[in-house]
Amino acid sequence: MIYTILLYSWIGLAILLFPILLRITAPYGRHTKSTWGPLVSNRWGWVIMELPALLIFPILFFVGDGPKTYVTWLFLGLWLLHYTNRTLVFPLRTRTKGKKMPLTIVLMAICFNGMNGYLNGYYMGFMADYGESYLADPRMMIGFAIFAVGLLINWQSDAILLNLRKPGETGYKIPRKGLFRYISCPNHLGEIIEWAGFAVMTWSLPTLSFALWTAVNLIPRALDHHRWYLKKFPDYPKERKAIIPFLW
Ligand SMILES: NC(=O)c1ccc[n+]([C@@H]2O[C@H](COP(=O)([O-])OP(=O)(O)OC[C@H]3O[C@@H](n4cnc5c(N)ncnc54)[C@H](OP(=O)(O)O)[C@@H]3O)[C@@H](O)[C@H]2O)c1
User: Fold this and answer.
1) Contact 58, 80 (CB under 8 A)
2) Interval 70-114: pLDDT, tens
3) 76 C-alpha to center of ligand 1: Å?
4) Contact, 42 vs 94, CB < 8 A?
5) Which of ligand 1's atoms lies nearest the C-alpha of 95?
6) Other beta carbons less than 10 A from residue 88's beta carbon
7) Ligand 1 neighbourhood includes 187 CB (under 6 angstroms)
8) Is pTM beyond 0.90 here?
9) What is the pLDDT of residues 102-135, one digit of tens each?
């Protein structure tokens, strides 16, 4: 009962927050501001704020008494694949020496990742009931393909950005490879596609809530990044869109 109330409230909050986030620039990365309170190391901030998602989902999966099948193990594996990279690999690859982010952002992200880890992990551990035959279900196959495409776009785009800087550099350049030819933030687009695929594959409300939250977070961030690029670089490609090729 508490779970259901939390889940519907979480979805409602995402819908309410979207128009607000379109007007607020989240102050981390290139948009970092000291007016949001004390600052902490950017690299460690990333590790700490993503950790709840990496830990809570598997803990609830293992503690839960729901049926464990190849299908639920696969869902756990995909979650861990994404969050091991995001929590432990991505921060170590960033070239952000000396850069900071507000502690407020870290605390907000801990709540965000904690809630998503809880809602999705509890569902997979205690409630999900996928028989082995679900592996041949069209939702599983189509969703898996969407997830894989999203993951590859996200990883490729993150890698292009991280390779723009030589060791020791912390400034910004115009990315020109991969899907950056068409949009300013394919890393964000890839992540949105990825979790939309996970929602299709798992066909459940908690995973849909996470896909929704990802879009609510990352569409405003991509629009902010796009405006920032246009202002910062006079030679920024004018035909490039923010997050959807040729459209937006
Ligand atoms: N699921 C979610 O809700 C969620 C929320 C947030 C982020 N994410 C994911 O987390 C990852 C990072 O997100 P983000 O918004 O922080 O990405 P970002 O702003 O694009 O930055 C990614 C990394 O690349 C560097 N970088 C970006 N643009 C650059 C440029 N033009 N020249 C040189 N270096 C550049 C950044 O350095 P600086 O830090 O110095 O800018 C940072 O280290 C993405 O894959 C995103 O999808 C997911």
Assistant:
1) yes
2) 999 999 999 999 999 999 999 999 999 999 999 999 999 999 999
3) 25
4) yes
5) 43
6) 14
7) yes
8) yes
9) 999 999 999 999 999 999 999 999 999 999 999 9
